[in-house]
Amino acid sequence: MPCYSFKGHIPVVDRSSFIHPQATVIGNVVIGKNCYVGPGAVIRGDWGEIILEDGVNVQENCVVHMFPGKSIRFRESAHIGHGAIIHGANLGANCLIGMNSVIMDGAEIGEGCIVGALSFVKAEAVFEPRSLIVGNPAKKIKHVTDAMLDWKTAGTKLYQQLPTDCHETMQEVDPLREIPEHRPVQEDFYKTLAELKRKG
Predict the structure, then answer these.
(1) Is the pLDDT of residue 200 over 80?
(2) Less crowded by CB within 10 Å, the N or C end of the chain?
(3) Cβ of 180: how many Cβ atoms within 10 Å?
(4) Which residues are the signal sequence here (predicted)?
């Protein structure tokens, strides 16, 4: 795993979690069970403590950091989308941070919140549980419905299975030079929220 000590702090990672070889985990970081950290992600605990509780995923190209002397925690099943930046903020259980959003220092994202893609959450902003948060600066626009939270939870479960799948099947290979005749077919086992609404 791509883990680095810093001033005597060595990352602690549960064996069930998967840190992609192209990710970087530095210093005072604690990662719980069934967590996924994708390629290009950086979790940088050089100046403070970063705790990922069980079932958290930090996807491709995310950055997690903070000012010196702080401690931040991502509660169980927090879901951080591609390219997001979390700087010195705490995330509640089962929340979703949308792709390329930025969450600033001292912000508190409550349990079951959904932060829309490209949102900017100001420093020290506090959002109550199950807030739907969007914009720049980000604001609560409504309450997260049961259907939205169920959809989010189902998506996070995919990421909680992903560490096991990666441990069991991912390996570095040479590419094929042509498409094989019997190429495996990937399952269509998850729908976007928009697709679910059209069917419902």
Answers:
(1) no
(2) C
(3) 7
(4) none
